[in-house]
Design a protein that fits this description.
Number of helices of chain B: 3
Largest interface: A-B, 51 and 46 residues
Strand content of chain B: under 5%
Distance between the termini of chain A: 56 Å
Number of helices of chain A: 4
Shape of chain B: elongated
Helix content of chain A: 55-70%
Number of strands of chain A: 0
Number of domains of chain A: 1
Number of strands of chain B: 0
Helix content of chain B: over 70%
Distance between the termini of chain B: 52 Å
Order of helices and strands of chain A: HHHH
Largest sheet of chain A: none
Largest sheet of chain B: none
Radius of gyration of chain A: 21 Å
Oligomer: heterodimer
């Protein structure tokens, strides 16, 4: 393990952190909140990866359900796209929340959460319907 | 924001480090699932995806370890936390996996 002082220069703490839209404004918040924001972002990323994996799993199913191949593909695409959207929104949300904390503004709720839940519920209902019918 | 004394800063860096590791593992799992399914159609391509995925996740894991040490150091020194480049990179990895998943689904 390398010594902590052997950190490469580009990783040293600088005032020019990325992205400027976040770190160029306001003041340093309590590090606990920044770390919590980072963990929330990572949890969203894991959720997005979960959607991706579920979509790929459904896509693999179409080999076993030849008469439902098109439906399986459609559901798979919806799941994968939802996963990608979750990831993109997650990063933007992390930046927005970090910026709000730096400016001492209130944090916003996520409008997308009901959307993701809806996608999950709809896909699950379709899957159950297909299973019952076949 | 609270003006109370910080109750235990020692746990936050660890929890964040573990969150990164969980995310790395999720990324690896998603990549391997795609690689496995692809390997049923094209063994070499599937193996390449798995190998590249392992390499990238290994590299991210090393950087996660360094990030944890850096956070620990700056918290005690009163310096600023690291920025969002790693977050953007992780988002990029998810996008990459998404493209791979879409490609598998549609082809």
């Amino acid at each position: 393990m390398t010594d902590a002082s052997a950190t490469p220069p580009e990783e040293e703490a600088t005032p020019h952190r990325f992205p400027k839209s976040v770190y160029g404004v306001g003041s340093e918040p309590d590090p606990r909140f920044s770390l919590a924001n980072e963990r929330t972002f990572l949890a969203w990323i894991r959720t997005g990866l979960g959607f991706l994996t579920a979509g790929v799993g459904v896509a693999a199913l179409h080999n076993y359900l030849p008469n439902l191949a098109v439906e399986a593909q459609l559901i798979a695409v919806v799941l994968v796209l939802t996963g990608v959207v979750v990831g993109l929104v997650a990063y933007r949300r992390w930046a927005t929340q970090e910026r709000a904390m730096r400016l001492n503004r209130p944090l916003s709720g996520s409008l997308m959460m009901p959307v993701y839940s809806l996608v999950l519920v709809v896909v699950a209902l379709i899957a159950v319907t297909i299973l019952i019918r076949s | 924001m609270s003006h109370d004394r910080v109750w235990d800063r020692g746990l936050q860096p660890e929890r964040t480090f573990l969150a990164w590791q969980r995310t790395n593992l999720s990324l690896l799992a998603a990549t391997l699932v795609i690689a496995r399914l692809v390997s049923l159609h094209d063994l070499l391509f599937g193996a390449v995806i798995a190998g590249v995925g392992l390499l990238i996740v290994s590299a991210i894991t090393v950087r996660t370890q360094r990030r944890y040490r850096r956070v620990h150091r700056v918290l005690h020194a009163g310096d600023a936390l690291p920025g969002g480049r790693a977050n953007l990179a992780m988002t990029g990895m998810l996008l990459l996996a998404g493209i791979g998943a879409l490609a598998y689904t549609l082809l």
